[in-house]
């Protein structure tokens, strides 16, 4: 049993003022495998004060000094890949391939921040004016459990690259990953106070970050409900806010698609990260004229998807992160049936042979309509909904008939048709016949999927204020 007692403030691991201990579970066995001591509002205030004190000096560091610091961070995080992998398997239950990606991403994303910093234009001319990008102040960084280490490293590296200092409120459910990252960052030897990490509850430590006037900017990844709340709370102190929120992403299968060829992409898009992915392609739009053919191929393909022990190399889908999340997914499987959608695969309960662990059967509903809750609400589990459409215009209308707009996938043979459809989908990202990721491109959502963008120069800009200097021309 691992006990994580300390938080990280002003360059030191310290005992929090908060007294509450929070249980960490292995979602594959439901066992308690650790405990973390949570900070409280007073701890958050100390961390914010440390970040404020460190801001003047850090904001004046040169590009080269920041690159050197980020390179040390990268080396220290990369050296802990295996420890991170083990924590991700134990406290989150990601299947092996996904887990390995999640263990390498935190270091990779620091390299991407370094690349963005190397080429970033902090100054440019606009007519007679010099336009300067200046760091906004202390950033409050709040992360979810579905890729905690990656989000900490991405947000922190970008904030530091821009010249901000930071207070991180990681997901309280991912404290093992946080501890490994904190030890790595400590080893990187950044000046005290430049980054601070306070484990704690969202409505305690997160709330203090949202309210405290010492925080100039919030970067949040999590649910749309909490994101909206942060926007409202942050408005009182005019915080700059970047939100990466939920999704109900459409996979648009065009009528010329080769169903057998695209089915692996369809299922991978939907079931990625055990369905606990903001970008998961959970609404599958299929031409009504070919629906029966699609259903038959999908049913066959899903029968080969394994949901079970994440340490088994054949496993595609691991457990849900918590009992609460498992119950929520079960509720939606019931709701889908009550709404009149047809179960093509899966259903309620655990997969055959599993008596414990928060495992869900890979589930596909078909013959749904886009007004059903299973087509509108983010389920955050391996539950996909097939919605038939009449023609291309109908497909685009259904794809856009959602509160969300984070990601979309278009699949078809004719490249022109694919691109024509892709350009009409209201979404921060549209993939065509690929699930490839481009880390240099901006990432973020339309509508309730978020506000602002992360990654590359767009991500850096979110931590900067634009200042115009005029009148000193030679
Ligand atoms: P969540 O919103 O419940 O929690 C996210 C973080 O916010 C946690 O650290 C939590 O402690 C904190 N929090 C909760 N209440 C708070 C409050 N009142 N004030 C401040 N902070 C508070 O989300 P989750 O369940 O951890 O993660 C799943 C959600 O995250 C899904 O909706 C998913 O789509 C979304 N997500 C989005 C992206 C993206 O990039 N768009 C990526 C991953 C996850």
UniProtKB/TrEMBL annotation:
Signal peptide: none annotated. GO terms for molecular function: aldehyde dehydrogenase (NAD+) activity. Residues 14-468 form the Aldehyde dehydrogenase domain. The keyword Aminoacyl-tRNA synthetase does not apply. It catalyses: an aldehyde + NAD(+) + H2O = a carboxylate + NADH + 2 H(+). The active site is at 244. It is an enzyme of class 1 (oxidoreductase). PROSITE patterns: ALDEHYDE_DEHYDR_CYS (PS00070), ALDEHYDE_DEHYDR_GLU (PS00687). Keywords: Oxidoreductase. The keyword Oxidoreductase applies. Its EC number is 1.2.1.3. PANTHER family: ALDEHYDE DEHYDROGENASE (PTHR42804), ALDEHYDE DEHYDROGENASE-RELATED (PTHR42804:SF1). Belongs to the aldehyde dehydrogenase family. This is aldehyde dehydrogenase (NAD(+)). It comes from Collimonas arenae.
